[in-house]
Amino acid sequence: EAVADALRLALENGEIDIALQPQFKIADGAHAGFEALARWRHREGEMPPGQFIPVAEETGLIIPLGQYVLERTLAEASRLKKLSLTPGIVAVNVAASQLKLDNFPETIETLLRRYGLPPEALEIEITENVLLDRSSRRIGQSLQAIHEIGIQIALDDFGTGHASLSHLKRIPVDRLKLDRSFVCGIGINAGDEVIVRTILNLAQSLGKSVVAEGVETRDQLNFLRNLGCDIGQGYLLSVPLAPQKAERFLRKNV
Ligand code: G
Ligand code: G
Ligand code: NA
Ligand code: MN
User: Fold this and answer.
1) What does the pLDDT profile of the chain (254 residues) look like in tens digits?
2) Quick one: which H or E segment has residue 5?
3) Which residues have C-beta atoms less than 6 Å from ligand 2?
4) Residues in domain EAL (predicted)?
5) Close Cβ partners of 12 (under 8 Å, ≥ 6 residues apart)
6) Which domains are assigned to the chain?
7) Strands (DSSP E) along 75-194, which ranges?
8) Atom 8, ligand 1: which residue's CA is nearest?
9) Ligand 2 centroid, distance to 27 Cα (angstroms)
10) ipTM for this prediction
């Protein structure tokens, strides 16, 4: 359909770019890294990823799109390092169909080498629903190989999908990303606060770190700090930044 054709052209014409949203250590406010988010500079302004990512997944365009975002992000991290800036860990969203590609772990390894980055500088974000895919065995093997390279794995939108907690034993997950719908309820909704506490307890017991998404208020940040949440991301701390702005952000940060 129309969006799919337009997206195919956008990829060819270089209308897709990335935005980098900074992540911070909640304990001391130090910069920790960035999440890369796909951005489509559409004729009629910006098309939000919530609209085109699902289309990309349905049409298979998520494979070239995901590859582009991955390479663009590593190139940017490499560029920032060459300027003696410290991008920290860059997180890239990866879809199930990418993980099913025959040589996806090798492709990432090749890119890391090309851009002179250590594997620890990259984090792969997957959603819980990736673990429910028909090819979950294949995907599990791919994640295992990626993890063995030394790349970190984060489980995105944690608590909102349909995966069972037993996946946490089977899949090498380093980090849980606390979904913003729960963070949003801090100070407002007792149920959300219980969920936030429970996820933080679970993560601490399993030795995994937690990134809180969608932090928009001081009260949310204080609540998360008191519970020992490791990393925060959200509009209170910074919106997603165009690469040039991410460079400026890091210059002010040193
Ligand atoms: O930027 P925004 O909050 O609108 O993103 C909406 C959703 O799109 C998020 O869940 C995010 O994880 C997803 N997304 C953004 N960029 C990418 C990408 O490059 N690949 C994949 N698979 N998902 C992405
Ligand atoms: O989990 P996912 O990768 O879908 O989330 C990233 C999305 O969340 C991005 O599209 C980003 O623009 C959006 N986002 C980042 N910080 C905030 C925030 O503080 N509040 C809200 N509502 N959205 C945010
Ligand atoms: Na994400
Ligand atoms: Mn998320």
Assistant:
1) 788 999 999 999 999 999 999 999 999 999 999 999 999 988 778 888 999 999 999 999 999 999 999 999 999 999 999 999 999 999 999 999 999 999 999 999 999 999 999 999 999 999 988 988 888 889 999 999 999 999 999 999 998 988 788 888 889 999 999 999 999 999 999 999 999 999 999 999 999 999 999 999 999 999 999 999 999 999 999 999 999 999 999 999 86
2) helix 2-12
3) 21, 37, 49, 93, 156-157, 180, 213-216, 234-235, 240
4) 1-254
5) none
6) 2-253 (3.20.20.450)
7) 89-93, 122-127, 152-158, 175-178
8) 49
9) 21
10) 0.95
7, 11, 53, 241: which to mutate for ligand 1, most atoms within 8 A of CB? 53
CA 179 to ligand 3 center in whole angstroms: 10
Residue 231 has which token pair? 């990393």
Please give the structure tokens belonging to residue 62. Answer: 């998520």
Cβ(92)–Cβ(36) below 8 Å: yes
218 backbone φψ class: left, alpha, beta (φ>0; ψ -120 to 50) = alpha
CB 49 within 8 A of CB 43: no
Tokens of residue 192, six digits: 């959300």
Tell me 48's DSSP state: P
